[in-house]
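Q: What would this complex look like in 3D?
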Amino acid sequence: MLSYNLKLAMHSFKRAPSLYFLVLLTLSVGVGLLCANLALVSSMAGDPIPEKSGQLFHVSMNTWPNDQPQSEPFHILRYREAMKISESDIPKHSAVFYASGVYARDSESESLKRFDSSVRATTPGFFPLTKAPFAYGNGFAKSSGMEVVIGAALNQKIFAGANSVGKTLELDGELLTITGVLKPWSLRPLFYHATEGRAFNLTDDIYVPLETAIDLGWSIHARTSTTVSYKGVQFTRDRDVFYLQAWVELEDKTKQEAFQNYLDNYSQTLKDAGEHPLDILNELRDVNTWLSELKIVDQKVLAFTLASVLFLCVCVFNASSLLLSRFHSAKFEVGLRRAIGASNKNILIQGFTESVLLGLVAGVVSLLLSWLFLKLSITFLPDLANIAVLDPKLLLLGMLLALVTSVSSALYPLYRANRFTISAELK
Amino acid sequence: MLIMNNVSRIYRNDTIKTHALRDFSLHVNAGEFVAVTGPSGSGKSTFLNVAGLLDTFDQGEYTLDGVNVHGLKDDDLSRLRNEKIGFIFQSYNLIPDYSVFDNVDMPLRYRNFNAAQRKRRVEQSLEKVGLASRANYLPSQLSGGQQQRVAIARALAGEPKILLADEPTGNLDSLMARQVMELLHKLNQEGTTIIMVTHDPDQAREVNRNIQIIDGQISDFKIYAPLQSSQVSQTETVKGKESVDA
Amino acid sequence: MNIKALFKSLLLRKFTTGLLILQLAITLGLLVNSSILAFDAKGKISQITGLDNDNILFMSTQPTSGSYRDLDYYRSIVTQDIEKLNQLFGVNSVSITNQLPIATQGMSTNIHDLDNPDQDRTDKYLQNVQYILTQENLADAMGLTLAEGRFLNKADQFDFGSEQKRNIVVTESLKRALYGDESAIGQETNIGFIVGVIKGITLDPTLPSDKQYGVFVNTVMEYIFTGRFYVLNVEPQQMANVRSLVSETILAVQAERDIFRVFTMQEHLHRFYRDDTGLADLFLLLCGLMLFITAISSYAYSQFHISRQQKFIGIRRALGARKKDILFYVLTENWLVYSFGCLLGLVVTIGFNILLSQYISLSKPDIALFLLAIGVIFMSGTVATWFPAVRTSNIPPVIATRTV
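A: Here is my prediction, written as structure tokens for the whole assembly.
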């Protein structure tokens, strides 16, 4: 019976090709557009590291030295707090870092061409904490030393993707050795640095030990707040310059509580010494809590997603009208089939098969359109460039949506078709 | 074979009640060939619709081949229609873009036959109507008479107990009409029960049992001897109860 | 025209008519709100910034080589750059600065009058005053006009490493915030002595116009590594030519530089709002699609109902209706449906506007826009159903008599 119904469906399509084409088109466009938007939203709202997002915590403290804080608590820290966090053995791993930028060049290359590279000056705990995937070598062991880890993209640009462990890079006039090369690594969103509009940046090109970067004076490329003047980052260790961010990995509730106490005790010692004018307010926020607090989901995309939901409704209504007129003109054949013994159920299943088949084709076309639309959306909203990707679960969603819309637009027409009085049509 | 007792079919809209069939009773035995005549609007089509389970009825009893259709669900009615009844329409009602084979095959699809069984039955049916060589033709490539014969083959494919024909020769010229009637007579002689609605009194006289329907009731009950023998007719009149319109 | 009869005939086909009305309503809602977005975006990019949009050219650069760590070397290169750029034909003035107006991020500081240290507590905006490092030519390069006092001069650039209090220039709104209507010249703030006030310019378009607080200091040469932007004042007719030459000019001085972008003030403004214009464009695209689909629906709707009414239309013709009458009848039927659609569309428009406002900022709909959108819908609908309507009017009266 299934193959017969499929055959009948194909026949039906051939009889009214332009109508079915229109139905296919409207459903595909509607579903495709919505899917593309959902892809964007899910990229933005997704959990970038689901296997441990509940165990990684961003640290914010309230150690601003006067009573006019930028915000309470503050998401960036001074060197002294950052070190305090680094010293603690409560977290399984901790990472303290700041963002910088440098021009990189293979020191042995004859060409003077330098590549603009984003830099993460960090303590070595960064790598296990974020589960940075290594293709070659491994992370640096200490927070100092003239060593770097580079990302896959930079490795591709400078060394054509080869194993460059052991090679030296010339960075801002200094020579540093590569200890590790990462695999292509995409974090959507970039949870470890989601502030200052960087949530959809790519992972960094160069990872350098924190102290090394500070000593070399590599400038801070993200938010810095200070109450004093300073001539360069190398002078920030003993000043009230806030620019470092800290993440810790705390495996369970006991560790979380222990670390919270650790921070609070530290803040208390500052208070006792008269150096903590604000209230003690140290906050640990796990990945998803942190991301949702930062509200990184682009509201514009949400607005457009809403519009595309309405658009899909219009498409379904359109398909429904078209199918109604189609089923109406098919009345004769339906009546005939009923007369020769097809039950209502048979006819329903026949119509249902048709709409499922249509839905499957619409699904495939809509996925193509989704992909196209994502590419197009980058021209309209260039900031979306890194997140406009279709991941597999969206493909599944697209197919499902196409099927659901196809069947639901056929529901009322099928219902009406079922209520045709058989005798009237056959004279 | 077909037993209707006091069947009434009433059409209602907002203001008017129409009795299309009124206290209608009819017994048809297996192997009979019944011609149904009557003026326009008399209820012939309704009778055929009800008999063919295409339409419901409001009062009375209807038993087809021993099965009482009262209270049967759509699925069961459809199965009954599929297995026991074959329809022949005035305008053949073939699907224009299906081949002859596919047209005849249609009712078989709603039964659990496999491809081989269906093929066999279709071929047998087409043999009976003499169109086995035209299995791959499209209806548009056949004459009116041939198309009607395909329709008859379709009606026969499921080996029904009873054929219901609604003016089967109404759209055919006299030569083709003749051929179709000969076929129907042949089938009847082979044992198929046939009920045929017709306007043609000659056709009516050719069969051994006539019914006239007027105003939703059987008004005349004639049994004719075959045309060649003497035109002695016996008339029985069966009157139903009077009923009042609302 | 028997409206009542038309209305009744519509009621008989509630489902299809209802669907079409819904589609029309949603289309109208989207059309109006998309237009609002488009007009809003247009308004933003045509706003008055107080800056001379046509004359100003920016170039953002970054040195790539480590030799620039030697700040004196860096400074010598910059000095040569400025000299060479000044020599280009059409260039009136060249300067260098750390950040540009029409931006939300950058260096900022807090400021208060020394005699009034609580000022930045009462006015929170005083804690985030844009801190612009530059040199003495910026006023000419960027076409800044003075409200009082003078702009920075060479003498304001103290010796490097000096701890002396600087001379600063402030924006008009900042001066008003600190000193009201009094003169600001000579006043001492925590950052420095005010020597000049420049007329209102927009530093951060997302802030109110009276909160455009900015401070200019002649320290870019000292902190030369912050000097990311060259600012050139160019004769408008020479703009195209100058733009094509600026990169090679400075690369000729020293090639180890990355030149990110060369752009005019106008382009800078557009870029700031590129998300707004981008979103507006996306919505308009969606509108276009929706109109198209609703037109298809309209066509299918007409087509479907006409085919069912063939016999009745034939009868009307047989009874004396002219082709024109039938055409009018069909069109009127459609217009009735559109009217209902637009009525419901009013509700949808307002509702959608409110819903969108939760996510983005957009103006409220106004009557003119609404009427315009209704006009568009009526027109596109009429076009869509024109052919079915004409075909219907061509149905011959003989159809009334056909029984087959």
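A: To summarize the key features: The interface with chain A takes residues 45, 49, 52, 54-55, 74-75, 77-79, 81-83, 85, 87, 89-91, 93, 95, 97, 106-107, 109-111, 154, 158 of chain B (CB under 8 Å). Chain B has seven helices and eleven strands.
Q: Very helpful, thank you.
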